[in-house]
């Protein structure tokens, strides 16, 4: 059989590779982004109750109404946006499926999609499966005068042309940990006003923003929200990454197209989790307190790394922290990550894995990504091992 791959450049993801290596080496896994602790026992009890109450069959295709109403209420309270829970909110199989369904719904063969690099690894394959053409705009990497990555919005604007279908955004940003500011929203408003480009905003880490700042959602600005699909993740918010439940908010005309694809990818997502989340969301304290919870872990890891030969960089959001290893090695990032796992028992992710050409010199800045969504004892043991590097 003559088999021609639709994704010839895609192999096993770096997250799976590093997690498997960590397991084989019995290393501490600070690579893949998932907590090593359980969610709130109250939420687990609510799932059990939903099952016992008989919520075990197909729920409505776009999600149970009670959950969509809670999402609409939360988004309105936090960002001032008014999404109709019946026609403008869809519960999805994680933010992953929301991204895939949106791209498949709107990107046609030959359409260009502007993507800011470094980027989450799903973006390019999803665009290519739809027949689209990724147009990659690199961020400016940290240097002697800038401690974090930065987006050059002028370069983003210049990349948008007649064939552009969509601009993909991800803030708080994985892997760099940078967040949106009011000035960024201003720049985006100018771009949308000039071009009318559709925005796909991956806001999975919306509730993890540090140092007293607030999340600048695309939904805060009426012009942006009218041209955008805004996506979030219950997995990141409630420490339930294995449940794979997220959602997307978009104007009715956009939502209608997304649901056409959603119903044929997964149809719907598990009933008992949806009912449990609808009840759990009635208390805002868990998501309102998430930034403080993770800031303590960020500070713990940052302080620990500062006593090693690593140079931690500022993390403004997400549960990731970047660190330079210039003082340790001149290996490319992927080789260094593998060496660190094998020789010192701590697994990390090379930031170069989030570039279109991971092996290229311009993709390697001797920076690796640590996940601090871990128990304090896990972080402390990792730092103790890293101190011996």
Fold topology:
Layout: H1 14-25, E1 28-29, H2 41-52, H3 65-79, E2 89-92, H4 94-106, E3 112-117, H5 123-129, E4 133-138, H6 153-159, E5 164-170, H7 182-195, E6 198-202, H8 222-225, E7 228-233, H9 234-238, E8 246-249, H10 252-265, H11 271-280, H12 285-288, H13 290-305, E9 311-312, E10 320-324, H14 333-344, E11 346-347, E12 349-350, E13 367-371, H15 376-386
Parallel strand pairs: 1-11, 3-4, 3-5, 5-6, 6-7
Antiparallel strand pairs: 2-8, 7-8, 9-10, 10-13, 12-13
Helix pairs in contact: 1-14, 2-11, 3-11, 4-5, 4-10, 13-15
List keywords for this structure.
389 residues; alpha/beta; Aspartate Aminotransferase, domain 1; Aspartate Aminotransferase, domain 2; seven-stranded mixed beta sheet; four-stranded antiparallel beta sheet; 14% strand; PyrdxlP-dep_Trfase_small; pyridoxal phosphate; Aminotransferase_I/II_large; kynurenine-oxoglutarate transaminase activity; pyridoxal phosphate binding
Would you mind describing this structure in some detail?
The protein is α/β, with parallel strands linked by helices and 389 residues long. 40% of the residues lie in helices and 14% in strands. It has 15 helices and 13 strands. The N and C termini lie far apart (50 Å).
The CATH architecture category of the largest domain equals 3-Layer(aba) Sandwich
Strand content: 5-15%
CATH topology of the largest domain: Aspartate Aminotransferase, domain 2
CATH class of the largest domain: Alpha Beta
Characterize the biggest β-sheet: 7 strands, mixed
Q: Which stretches of 5+ consecutive residues score pLDDT under 50?
A: none
Distance between the termini: 50 Å
